[in-house]
Amino acid sequence: MNKKWIQTKAFFFRELDMRKRSWSWQLVWIIYDLMWAMSVGFLGLGAAAVSGVEINTQQYVLFLLVGSFMWTYLSSIFGTVSWAVTWERWEGTIEYTFMAPVSRTIHLLGNSIFAIIYGLIRMVIVFTISAAVFNFTLTGANLMGAGIVLIFASISFIGLGMIAAVLPLISPEMGDKTTLIMEAVIMMVSGIFYPITVLPVWMQYIAKISPGTYALEGMRMAVIDGASVSSLSSFIWPLIIIGIILIPLGNFVFILGEKYVKQTGKLKRDG
Amino acid sequence: MKYAIKINNLTKGFHDKTNFMPKWLVSDSHKNKFYAVKDVSFDVKKREIFGVLGPNGCGKSTLIRMISTLLTPDKGSVEVFNIDALKKPGEIKKLINRVSVEASFFKRLSAKENLLYASRLYGIEDKVAIKKFQQILKDLNFPESMVNSQMMKFSRGMQQKVSIARGFITDPILILLDEPTTGLDPKSKLDVQNFILNLHAKKNLTIVISSHDMLEVEKLCDRIAIMDKGKIIAMGTSDELKEMVMKENTYELETSDSAKSKRSLQKFKQVHNIITHNGTVRFCTKDITLVADKITTTLKEKNIKFKNLKQVVPSLEDVFLEITGKSLEDRP
Hints:
Largest sheet of chain B: 6 strands, mixed
Strand content of chain A: under 5%
Strand order of the largest sheet of chain B: 6-7-8-3-9-10
Order of helices and strands of chain A: HHHHHHHHHHH
Distance between the termini of chain B: 39 Å
CATH class of the domain at 247-313 in chain B: Alpha Beta
Radius of gyration of chain B: 23 Å
Strand content of chain B: 25-35%
Distance between the termini of chain A: 37 Å
CATH topology of the domain at 247-313 in chain B: Alpha-Beta Plaits
Helix content of chain B: 25-40%
Oligomer: heterodimer
CATH architecture of the domain at 247-313 in chain B: 2-Layer Sandwich
């Protein structure tokens, strides 16, 4: 078997084994994701009653739920890629991983493949149950368009995760906390539950460079409006460009981070 | 190629973490830099077992981290099998492995899962890896039935045995053992030491062991470097090092009160290098008649019970004491 493939497998199966060994926690996260998505769905159902204004409730619920599903998926990817380093920091295994003759690209690729599959499984579970509860179907959706948006959104979020992964690498004390803040900021500016036009103007500038914005808007157009692939191109192209920038940038930043910790001695368990 | 490792003027310092002032605000003369390793040079021959002996905090682990490419030196060079560790770390990583004092693992995963992860990182196929680690664990007297148990359920000794298996599973030709037996019970310690010696006898393997256990270093190593405060202060075979203190005779006695005995012996100007350990007192003197007469008389006068006063071969502890003026155990 190809050596590089075996090395990629190392990271994939490490993540898988850790999830299997903490299966009860995985159940907790899925239940949490589900409750979160359903609460958001019910928020949509109650919007007319709360505001006293008649709205297209079904449309609004779907708007919210698509945002919720996408965020379940994208935050799972971001979290899996960025937290892999935090986990290694906690366990003290990072020195052994960094001592092995394995490139950072392979390291991050193995983590990313797992992140995509794991995120998809979580999203499909949440989607299936929510669809049954809120009684909606994807009959009018352009699933191929949604799939294309999902693929390019995944690449961009892997890039973001790689950049975030460097934080716990260079600062064992503050890195994981900063990663969470980074995730929260992306969530806020990307318009999970609202169009980004409601944001203050300065936040809209940040929204324009967030891949989450294009992923969410593109997904909504594909799923709710059934938009064709060509009309989704205004969301797909930015995702491709952001991905092309973020993946090599993430890899580069991670390698710089590795050099820094080897220089300062921060790779050691106690920092 | 005669040498496995060539180290030249290796230096590594760390900034004082208690200094919270931004670096740009602090002048160069006030930047507190603590040197963990300073101007260290030595060679390790191929197939040699080379020991680095020194107290905790003397720079042994920093030295091993620099050889294993985990730490970038401030100054100096490290060559492993003629490959520059700074320029081509990737080439060196294929040839070496390391076992550290902290048996760091994914504690929720089993020994098997951890070992498969480690071997996959080196591109080793699972079936080959399983065969290898089963043999290594068997040689280390690790119970086969525990291989699927989570690491967090293992004792320190068992974790360290898995750690040693992780180090050897990749068939390194240079293995760096950073205090591999620290904290192990005597049985596990013996298992590990025997495993190292057996493997070294069978394979084309160069070993570097750091330790503060002089008996272990003496038992395992062909040559020994004694390290203190980041520097190598003596180097040679065990016999060569002991010759440094052979100019005096070393004596040992068993006593009921080693502290009181030590105080009494300190009063004799001709007595040096007094070490107390587990009810024994060791000391050096040139004056044989002093031992026979005055010392025994003094101890008797002070009602200190003692027995088995005898001349002994000096140990590496005596060497360390002779060179540094302090015992290995006196150090932090």
